[in-house]
Amino acid sequence: MSKEKYWKLLDDFEDLLTYQHRVPHEGLPKKVLDGTITAEIHEAPIDQNRKDRLAILEEQISQCTACGLHSGRTNPVPGYGVLNPKVMVIGEGPGAEEDKSGLPFVGRAGKYLDKWLSAINLERSKDCFIGNIIKCRPPGNRDPLPEESSICLPYLEQQVDLIRPKVILTLGRIAAQILTGHVEGIGRLRGKTYSYRGVPLIPTYHPSGVLRNPQYRGAVWEDLKRLQKALDEA
Ligand code: SF4
Q: Whose CA is nearest to atom 3 of ligand 1?
């Protein structure tokens, strides 16, 4: 057997395991499970590549009405980036600019995030996938309600499984609490490495918070060095 065939076989097998593990997911919102769009995922051939499956997932998100946030959105923001990224960056939810463009972290906080990434030689366009816990903007930029987060979370779980990042960087309290399962504030959660779906997870402050509170910059730099070390070890 050629080397290419061998790797393809291994990749298909891994996809099969991931696929069976992922669907059906009892945490999926009932409205999503009942919908015809989910049926596409169930019926997708197991050798369909991850990029196609990610596109199907994005299509599901674009049509999702599983929680009340769909009624106020201009665009859902499923996330954007490369497959097999070095880092998957996960924030809380889209803000006004993201809602307008359908893209994650495009405002002032996004530009600041790009600076953080470039400080450890990472580029958004080739090393990262950037997304959020919830895909639709909460009104007035309020925190997502716990039920909204839990209804939307299965999308992120599937994204992590399909995208297969080396390391996850969460931004802000809400993303850190939801993905680590801990209830402390971000000041206590950061400074450690956790694991989410088998991927090392490093929490740090949200760029918007650091823009408002420059005294957190030192802690962010420590977290970025932790991230760099985790990448070296991955
Ligand atoms: S926030 Fe998530 S669950 Fe709610 S409508 Fe948007 S995509 Fe669906």
A: 152
Q: What would the pLDDT profile of 109-158 be if each residue is shown by its tens digit?
A: 999 999 999 999 999 999 999 999 999 999 998 999 999 999 999 999 99
C-beta of 167 in contact with ligand 1 (< 6 A): no
- Please state, in angstroms and rounded to a whole number, the distance separating the CA atoms of residues 179 and 133: 9
pTM of the model: 0.81
- According to DSSP, the β-strands at 87-91 and 128-132 are parallel
Q: Which domains does the chain have, with CATH numbers?
A: 3-233 (3.40.470.10)
**Rounded CA gap, 29 and 147, in Å?**
10
DSSP string, 46-109: TTS-HHHHHHHHHHHHHH--SSGGGGG-SS----EE-SS-SEEEEES---HHHHHHS-SS-SHH
Q: Is the CB of 136 under 6 A from ligand 1?
A: yes
Residue bearing the CA closest to ligand 1, atom 4: 67
Rounded-to-5 percentages of helix, strand, coil across the chain? 55, 10, 30
